[in-house]
Structures are given as structure tokens and as C-alpha cells.
Specification:
By secondary structure, the protein is α+β, with helices and mostly antiparallel strands. It has five helices and three strands.
């Protein structure tokens, strides 16, 4: 069991849960929106550092606001690390570095592109229309060039 789910993964999961609550309730920086979510955490194998991926849908891909929120979180990383130390039972609490996670935005953009492509492709190619079934469900017979 321990090989399937290493300690660094378990620590990352716990950090994710605790940081989500701390960011929502304890961070008072006006640059950090209350709707900021922790999308994921990657902890190094020696548990000395952690990359925290955050996202929010409120910023509407405005890179200046996103960068300001990340700067606010990185500035509060010492405070958040101390709070994590109080909540978690770790000998050494990892240093935190915050990064904006664009996976959800990219997924939404790709979904929109696919939907647009499907909605604009409403015409049937003439070569394919010959092989479509008639009203009776049978494909039209090809004449093969023989006179009728």
C-alpha cells in the first residue's frame, strides 16, 4: 500500500485541503479573491518544498489580476506555512510557492472550440450523401455508368 501512494502524495493532499481553508478564511490580502481554489499541490520527495497550483474563475483570464493574486499568495506564504505547521503534524513544513493553474481554462477553451467546430459543420459532403439511406432505409443503388 505504501508503494502505491507515497508519503509525499499524502502530505500534498493534506496541504491542499488545509491551504484551501486557510486561503478562504485567513488571507486578508485584497489582491487574493475569496474564490481562489487550490487546484493541486506537488511536494518534493524530501518534503522540503511544495508547488501550490491555484485557480479562480472570477478573474476572466486577466493576466494582471492573476499575477497580483499570485504575488499576494507568495507574499503570504510565510504566514500560510506557519499556519500549516500549527495544523499539520510534520517535522519540517515545506516552503510554499504559488503558481496559477490554467488547466481548467484550457479545458473550457478547447470545449468551446470543439462545440463551435461541430456547430459549423452542418453540411454533408455530396460524395457522402450518395451513400446515405433513402426513406425506406436502403442505400440508393449506384448506376455504375450503365444507360438507363
Amino acid at each position: 500500500m505504501a508503494k502505491d501512494y507515497p508519503r509525499s502524495y499524502r502530505v500534498a493532499d493534506q496541504i491542499q485541503r488545509e491551504l484551501a481553508e486557510l486561503i478562504r478564511t485567513e488571507v486578508k490580502d485584497p489582491r487574493v479573491p475569496a474564490t481562489m481554489t487550490v487546484a493541486g499541490v506537488e511536494v518534493s520527495k524530501d518534503l522540503s518544498s511544495a508547488k501550490v497550483f491555484v485557480s479562480t474563475f472570477d478573474l476572466d483570464s486577466d493576466s494582471e489580476q492573476r499575477q497580483a493574486a499570485i504575488d499576494g499568495l507568495n507574499k503570504a506564504s510565510g504566514f500560510l506555512r506557519k499556519q500549516l505547521g500549527n495544523k499539520m503534524r510534520l517535522r519540517v513544513v515545506p516552503t510554499l510557492s504559488f503558481k496559477y493553474d490554467v488547466v481548467q481554462e484550457n479545458a473550457a477553451r478547447i470545449t468551446t472550440l470543439i462545440d463551435d467546430a461541430v456547430s459549423t459543420n452542418t453540411t454533408i459532403d455530396d460524395s457522402l450523401a450518395d451513400n446515405l439511406p433513402d426513406d425506406d432505409g436502403m442505400p440508393e443503388p449506384s448506376t455504375g455508368g450503365a444507360p438507363g
